[in-house]
Amino acid sequence: MTDTSFMKTPQVEIPVSAAGNIPNNPDHQGREDLIGLSREQLAERFALLGEKPFRVNQVWSWLYNRGIRDIDGMTNISRETRTKMQDVFHISRPSITSQQDSEDGTRKWLLKFGDRNEAETVYIPDRDRGSVCISTQVGCTLTCRFCHTGTQKLVRNLGAAEIVGQFLTARDSYGEWPTPNETGRLLSNVVVMGMGEPLFNYDNTVTALKILTDPDGIALSKRRVTLSTSGVVPRMYDLGRDVGVNLAVSLHAARDDIRDQIMPINKKWPLKDLIKACREYPAVSNARRITFEYVMLKGINDSDADARELARLVRGIPCKFNLIPFNKWPGSDLECSSWDRIERFADILCDLGYSAPVRRPRGRDILAACGQLKSESQRERLKRHQTTEAPPAA
Ligand code: SAH
Ligand code: SF4
């Protein structure tokens, strides 16, 4: 039996699944969302409506190539069929609670879903390209010591519609419809590195990734999609088999005793198992290396010995490191390593033959940097709470 004692208990379990018989993201009239249904699910639905299989391709293209938000605009489908579709389907977008632009071009949205839960999505530009960082859960069941999201209790998993909807909202915001050629896109990459542990919301995340990488719609190459996990080992094997996107692993320590202290998941799946899963991840090659994320924590994981141990641990895996300066948040007992220490750590890894760039924090002024997601939405919530429900004491 799986030991889940290290996880927080979800407070409100709202079943959202694109996989089973539960309707996909229904609206208030009970109509199913077209967004977030897999091709197979769409085919089932259209067969039930008595429609031919080619409808799936037509609808798919309207939704994900053209970005349509209204069934009536699907003009190559007969009016009669559109009416039939409107009776049972809707097309969702999360609503935008707030949008903030950083001075470095990073844009962050606080998005609200049908049940008023919220999650954050960030766009990080990089010259003529850019990455959309998407969330997979509201909160997180894990409690990594350095992560602000981990202090927010898990509210629920996001559904496939809500995961894909974050990318669609970002595309709406930059007007990137219809899907441009691969070379001419501002929103060229996706990183599943927002709030939550994606591999604890496996089915919805995989459905969303298949939609994002479908060549007839949003058409992101799998090489441009990276999923970050804290190390849900059995699901890493599944992910490699089911979608094969790039893998990033939040390693953060080279020894179990240190990792146990900062990442509770290590007690369940220790380094030996995690590294084995990385070695066996399919499609890893020198051209498609695993990224090991390593948050630099003063006095905890940043010594010369740690760097050498790290290199030993991953020997033989086509990989690169991403050294992340720790982003401090109110209430955290940890400090970021000094700049000299980070440089020395990077140099040791480089001398041992590893690429180890230091991740430049982006969007810090709008709290969009790694591990800072949550703070703003919580603050917003608090502000609203104060203004709508609890007038300040005189
Ligand atoms: N749950 C997944 C993905 C979301 S976290 C995971 O843990 O991998 C995305 C990345 O941000 C992870 O590498 C995480 O370790 C890192 N991170 C979390 N809190 C941070 C902080 N305060 N400063 C810097 N990086 C942080
Ligand atoms: Fe969850 Fe990832 Fe944060 Fe850990 S680092 S608490 S797994 S979001």
UniProtKB/TrEMBL annotation:
Q: Where does the Radical SAM core domain lie?
A: 126-365
Active site (record annotation)? E120 (proton acceptor), C370 (s-methylcysteine intermediate)
Q: Which cofactor does it need?
A: [4Fe-4S] cluster
Which E.C. number(s) belong to this protein?
2.1.1.192
- Which residues does the annotation say bind S-adenosyl-L-methionine? G196, E197, S228, S250, L251, H252, N327
Q: Give me the disulphide-bonded residues.
A: C133-C370
Per UniProt, subcellular location reads as: Cytoplasm
Q: Does the keyword Iron apply?
A: yes
By its UniProt entry, which CDD domains does this protein fall under?
Radical_SAM
Question: Which Gene Ontology MF annotations are present?
Answer: 4 iron, 4 sulfur cluster binding; metal ion binding; rRNA (adenine(2503)-C2-)-methyltransferase activity; rRNA binding; tRNA (adenine(37)-C2)-methyltransferase activity; tRNA binding
Record's miscellaneous remark: Reaction proceeds by a ping-pong mechanism involving intermediate methylation of a conserved cysteine residue.
PANTHER family in the record, alphabetically?
Answer: 23S RRNA METHYLTRANSFERASE (PTHR30544), RADICAL SAM CORE DOMAIN-CONTAINING PROTEIN (PTHR30544:SF5)
Name of the featured protein: Dual-specificity RNA methyltransferase RlmN
Tell me the organism.
Haematospirillum jordaniae
Q: Which gene encodes it?
A: rlmN
